[in-house]
Amino acid sequence: MRIAIFNNKDTVIVAYLKLSAMENIRKDFPILNTCVYLNTATSGLLSRSLLDWRHQHDRSFFEEGSAMKVRAMMGLIPETRSTIAHFFSCKTDNVALTPNFSLGMNLLLDGLDKKHKVLLLEEDYPSVNWPFEKRGFQIDYVEIDEHLEEKIYKEVKSKKISILALSIVQWLDGIQVDLDFLKNLKKEFPDLCIIADGTQFLGISDFDFEASAIDVLGTSTYKWLLSGYGNGFFLFKNRAKELFSVSSLGFNSVSGDLSRKGKVEFAKHLEPGHLDTFNFGSLKFSLESMKRIGMHTIEDQNRRLRKKAMDELGGLGLLKESILNRKNHGNILNILGDERCFQELTYNGIVCAQRGDGIRLSFHYYNNENDIETVINVLKTRA
Fold first, then answer.
1. Which of 34, 91, 172, 200 is the most exposed place for a label (fewest CB within 10 A)?
2. Helical H runs in 294-358?
């Protein structure tokens, strides 16, 4: 709902309405009544609404058997593909549905020529780096710090890199690559293929795939897209499909039409087997729920939470300079803290995770400022 703003009083009213709306959203996640959940980077929450949908789905399967499954595979799977395409601005034919990012990445790289020179980030998520390393590509690495983009540019320019593969948001500390930098990089090096993992990024802000510089974007959707496990997808630009010769194939690649064995669309090579309507229906449901809330609303809420957390934690000296000195950041913060600190946070009902040499806090639009204040108060008592 749009409300015109004419004066300061109207501004206050709009802010109040937004706050009230976000508090109503929290009611769809009952676990928030029992803890301070700051662990979406490990697993996003399951909403009560999605749980109801899943019950209805399996109730229909229980009552109708194969009739329900055939109907769902013919309708729900194509609808999920279309929903993803519209949500992230991608051509429907260029959407591949995969159980997770890791499986899709491995299938994809089996079709990439080993002649390519690849640039990876040190300590990036294993499912980004390991598939390249296992297959023996020529690889160079850059360190992840406040100068990340400068280092990427230098390596691409000096070493004739043809493949850049990276996570948009880093799983350990939330450092986010500058998407505008990638656009400028692509303009200067148009033959560079950019492969990105969006698992820790998609869902925290609005994103237009076609307008981005990314050629291949893959993700699992159990984190910020709140869709449960067993679902993910890959998005492709037309040019990217020319670089890969993917050989994986199966009954589902032709949607049951055996006459199409030699006419398989590129994305369907990543879908050789049947897709679970329970899992991909959950993804469709979650995307539609987020669309109703509005990605700009979600993005604004995440921006407010991120700023408050960084200001408060930075003020306590718990964030590294490499974090504070950067312009772009995801919804993950890794604070300086040992095992005792982690146990104290846990004792006070704060759900977080130990990652790297610190404690990872991650927040989403269903969190509020009180959650952050609870963490700050616990950390202050330790000081």
1. 34
2. 295-315, 321-324, 339-347
Closest by alpha carbon to 97, among 331, 287, 298? 287
* Regions in the chain scoring below 50 on pLDDT: 1-6, 12-17
Q: Within 10 Å of residue 227's Cβ, how many Cβ atoms? A: 27
Structure tokens at 50: 């999605």
Specify the domain boundaries for CATH 3.40.640.10 within the chain: 53-291
Q: What DSSP string runs through 221-246?
A: -SSTT---SS-EEEEE-HHHHTTB--
State whether CATH 3.90.1150.10 applies to domain 8-46+294-382.
Answer: yes
Q: Which CATH class is domain 53-291?
A: alpha beta
Q: Is the four-CA dihedral 65, 269, 235, 122 of positive or negative sign?
A: positive
Left (φ > 0), alpha (ψ -120 to 50) or beta: where does 344 sit?
Answer: alpha
User: Residues with Cβ < 8 Å from 295, sequence gap 6 or more?
Assistant: 205, 206
Tell me, what's the pLDDT at 261?
82
Q: What pLDDT score does 18 carry?
A: 59
Q: Mutual orientation of helices 148-159 and 179-188 as an angle, nearest 10°?
A: 20
- Furthest C-alpha separation in the chain: 69
CA 198 to CA 203: how far, in whole Å?
9
pLDDT value at residue 8: 59
Residue 324's alpha-carbon distances to 112, 177, 313, 317, in angstroms, are 37, 14, 10, 10
Which ranges constitute the DSSP H helices of 45-119?
Answer: 48-64, 66-88, 101-109
Q: Where in the chain are all domains bearing CATH 3.90.1150.10?
A: 8-46+294-382
Model's pTM, two decimal places?
0.93
Helix, strand, or coil here: 328? coil
Quote the pLDDT of residue 17: 47
